[in-house]
Specification:
mainly alpha; 2 domains; disordered N terminus
Length: 455
Amino acid sequence: MFRTVGERTTVGPAARNAGRRTRKSSIDLLGVLGKQKDQDGSQTSKAAEKRGVMQLSIDVPLLLVVITLVIFGLIMVYSASYDFSLRNDGDSNFIFSRQLLWLALGLAGALFLTYVDYHYWRQLAVPAIMITIASLIGVLLVNEIRNNAARTLYEGSVQPSELAKLIIVIYLAVWLYARKDQLSDLSFGLVPLGIILGVLGSLILLQPDLSAVVTVVFLGGLMFFLAGGDLRQIGILLVLAVLVGVIAYKIYPTGKARIDDYFLGLKDPTQGSYHVVRSFDAFVKGGWFGVGIGKGETKLTGLPVPHTDSIFAVVGEETGLAGSLAVVCLYSVFLWRGMIISRRAPDELGSLLAAGLSIWIATEAFINMAVMVNILPFAGNALPLISAGGSNLTVTLAAVGILLNISRLSRQRRDDNGKSFNAVVSLRGRNGGRRISSARRTANYAGRVSKRTRS
């Protein structure tokens, strides 16, 4: 039974057969486990692929808000413009049809920009700002007078000041991103910024379009602040903006009249401007839930430009306070999603672009709505995505396309980071200096264990 050290051990046929059975059992077990693992992995990959197909790579809440505003805008444009179109063009669908054409163009541009990497704007920013300046100069040369101002080209179809708002955000985002380490230096921060805003603002002021000038200067200061500009320089910029505003108040009678009417309206709403008084009439008639879409009367009895600047008053009359608050909530959600996209952007350029574009659109909306109830002095801002107007609609949709592109690239980056964490790590070679046991090595080990046990 006991053998001395060094004595040779003879293995009989039974032991050899037992070893073979053990090795075969080990190989079969490993094969079953491997097959099960492959099936599980295949099912997991198919489920992940299915989830990837079902999930959109863009910000869905932002997209839904934009779709809602566009559809609601079309309804309100038709309601607010059919009488105006009939009296001025002989076709009750004239403005609505043009809005549909501009919407198609804007949607095509938004779709294109959604799939164009926003980093390309680093090469396109300078040509874009030059084209914008040239178009603003073209407005002054053509001198197409409409409503006591020269703001448009091609028989009122194109308004370059709307394009300037989008391009100033893009250009400043690129410029501030490139100069982010030099903004504290006055010669690299405030001075170039002042020149950029001064050139654009002066060309727009000569039209004149005071609300567009205020918007451009506001966006410049906002972008400088978001990029981490020096607070003292921002203070200087604010002082300069106030001085320019005072000069414009003294020089331009339109601006002076709007400010004076605003303060009169604060004291007594019935003493405000005719525009605001008629807007108040519309909201009072609308009550809580409105008179019904298409049934408003104020748009028919002298409300100025009901389908553009005053469309929120039509919304208030026909959908009431409930509908007006719903519109405010939609723009608030738009701003919230824009800031979420900015926070999740792949880099600082995307963050500046997303923040600037979303704040610009939301600010224009809130200014338009606040003006209608005399919270702010009257301004000619359109209500984005709702008011009739080709330039504003296409430019706003272009900004939406850039926002969706930033959100798409952010999602791709998060997915790539997730793949790196979920990847299978090889334990061969340098990864810990260990190797994965093969089926043959495992079977040999099982046979040796069986020999030792039987002996």
